[in-house]
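Q: I'm writing up a methods section and want to include an example of the input and output format. Could you take the sequence below and give the corresponding predicted C-alpha coordinates, formatted cleanly so I can copy it straight into the document?
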Amino acid sequence: MAVTDALQDALAGEHAAGKQLGVFGTPSLVLGDEHTVFVKLDSVPTADRGRPLWDQVHQLALGAPDLREWHRVVPEPKDVR
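A: Here is the clean output for your methods example:
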Protein backbone atom coordinates (compact mmCIF):
# COMPACT_ATOMS: atom_id res chain seq x y z
CA MET A 1 0.00 0.00 0.00
CA ALA A 2 1.44 3.35 -0.99
CA VAL A 3 1.42 6.05 1.66
CA THR A 4 -0.24 9.12 0.25
CA ASP A 5 0.41 12.65 1.48
CA ALA A 6 -3.16 12.76 2.82
CA LEU A 7 -2.69 9.54 4.79
CA GLN A 8 0.66 10.68 6.14
CA ASP A 9 -0.87 14.02 7.19
CA ALA A 10 -3.79 12.25 8.88
CA LEU A 11 -1.46 9.92 10.80
CA ALA A 12 0.77 12.83 11.83
CA GLY A 13 -2.29 14.71 13.07
CA GLU A 14 -3.51 11.75 15.11
CA HIS A 15 -0.03 11.26 16.54
CA ALA A 16 0.17 14.94 17.57
CA ALA A 17 -3.29 14.80 19.16
CA GLY A 18 -2.36 11.66 21.10
CA LYS A 19 0.89 13.22 22.26
CA GLN A 20 -1.07 16.19 23.65
CA LEU A 21 -3.14 13.72 25.70
CA GLY A 22 -0.05 11.92 27.02
CA VAL A 23 -0.62 8.80 24.94
CA PHE A 24 2.53 6.68 24.76
CA GLY A 25 1.32 3.58 23.02
CA THR A 26 -1.61 1.62 21.79
CA PRO A 27 -4.20 0.66 22.72
CA SER A 28 -4.91 3.90 24.56
CA LEU A 29 -8.47 4.87 25.39
CA VAL A 30 -9.61 8.46 25.82
CA LEU A 31 -12.51 8.63 28.27
CA GLY A 32 -13.95 12.10 28.61
CA ASP A 33 -11.78 15.19 28.73
CA GLU A 34 -9.31 14.18 31.42
CA HIS A 35 -8.96 10.41 31.41
CA THR A 36 -6.65 8.62 29.00
CA VAL A 37 -5.67 5.06 29.84
CA PHE A 38 -3.41 2.45 28.27
CA VAL A 39 -4.95 -1.01 28.25
CA LYS A 40 -3.13 -4.17 27.25
CA LEU A 41 -4.98 -7.49 26.99
CA ASP A 42 -3.52 -10.95 26.53
CA SER A 43 -6.29 -11.90 24.11
CA VAL A 44 -9.46 -10.60 22.51
CA PRO A 45 -12.30 -11.06 24.98
CA THR A 46 -15.16 -13.34 24.06
CA ALA A 47 -18.45 -11.71 23.08
CA ASP A 48 -19.99 -12.37 26.51
CA ARG A 49 -16.90 -11.00 28.30
CA GLY A 50 -16.32 -7.88 26.19
CA ARG A 51 -18.97 -5.60 27.70
CA PRO A 52 -18.30 -6.51 31.36
CA LEU A 53 -14.58 -6.00 30.77
CA TRP A 54 -15.24 -2.59 29.17
CA ASP A 55 -17.44 -1.63 32.13
CA GLN A 56 -14.69 -2.61 34.58
CA VAL A 57 -11.99 -0.67 32.71
CA HIS A 58 -14.27 2.35 32.38
CA GLN A 59 -15.19 2.28 36.08
CA LEU A 60 -11.58 1.91 37.17
CA ALA A 61 -10.43 4.75 34.89
CA LEU A 62 -13.17 7.18 35.94
CA GLY A 63 -13.89 5.96 39.47
CA ALA A 64 -10.33 5.81 40.77
CA PRO A 65 -8.52 8.86 39.32
CA ASP A 66 -5.79 8.61 41.99
CA LEU A 67 -4.78 5.20 40.66
CA ARG A 68 -2.02 6.19 38.28
CA GLU A 69 -0.59 2.82 37.31
CA TRP A 70 -1.53 -0.79 37.89
CA HIS A 71 0.41 -3.74 36.58
CA ARG A 72 -0.39 -7.41 37.05
CA VAL A 73 2.75 -9.30 37.98
CA VAL A 74 2.97 -12.54 36.03
CA PRO A 75 5.73 -14.93 37.07
CA GLU A 76 8.05 -16.21 34.37
CA PRO A 77 7.33 -19.80 33.39
CA LYS A 78 9.64 -22.26 35.08
CA ASP A 79 12.35 -23.68 32.88
CA VAL A 80 11.51 -27.34 32.37
CA ARG A 81 14.60 -29.24 31.30
